[in-house]
Amino acid sequence: MIEAPTMFKRQDDRLGEYSLRHVDPAADAPLLHEWVTHPKCRYWMMSEASIADVWAKHESIAASDHHFAYLGLHQYRAKFLVEVYDPARTELADACDVAEGDLGVHVLTAPTSTPIPGFTERVMVTVMELLFTGFDAKRVVVEPDATNEPVHRLNDWVGFRAERTVELRDKQALLSFCTPSDYERSAARGVRR
User: Fold this and answer.
1) Is the sign of the CA dihedral 102, 137, 163, 168 positive or negative?
2) Distances in Å between the alpha carbon of 97 and those of 15, 141, 152, 165, 179?
């Protein structure tokens, strides 16, 4: 069983407070439905989902001891979604050597017509801090769609090292890993590589 914090906060020098709280399936499903069905969020593969589908998915996550969903707030407004999971309990267990202390993560930033420069990068820093300090992860595993170049660049910026492309149930995924030392040596921490 994974110890999951119920709340997490980080103050960003430039963009203010970022915080995370557990998703409330009933209350948050309409907003999350807006996000995951937006064309920008096609990689979440929920473009045809109903509000009831989103609610049911988050009820299932809330009942789990190895999968957690957080609503991300920026300056107290809902702006992103974070899912943290145990990769040993997913199909990744067959695709890579999952080690003790590994955590997987999915991140979605809300679609917006008024983007804030640097916002998504600060979301990723908040997520990495959640994983390494809130969850005490020893290594983070991600498996974004192999064609999602913007996410690959963002992952590289926070220290992920791409290993290889793997075939998963719904996609070709770029399997990548980040340790605390990879993160500390990343561009996100001000280190040029």
Assistant:
1) positive
2) 37, 11, 21, 14, 15
Whether residue 105 contacts residue 123, with contact meaning beta carbons closer than 8 Å, is answered with: no
3-state secondary structure of 83: strand
Domains of the chain: 7-187 (3.40.630.30)
Q: Are 122 and 12 in contact (CB under 8 A)?
A: yes
Residue type, 166: V
Place of tokens 């439905």: 33
Residue 64, pLDDT > 90, answer yes
How far is Cα 106 from Cα 95, in angstroms, rounded to an integer?
17
143-152 confidence digits (pLDDT tens): 999 999 999 9
Q: What is the pLDDT of residues 96-108, one digit of tens each?
A: 899 999 999 999 9
pTM, full prediction: 0.94
DSSP letter string, 6-38: SEEEEEETTTEEEEEEE--HHHHHHHHHHHHTS
In the numeric block, the tokens 């999602």 are attached to: 148
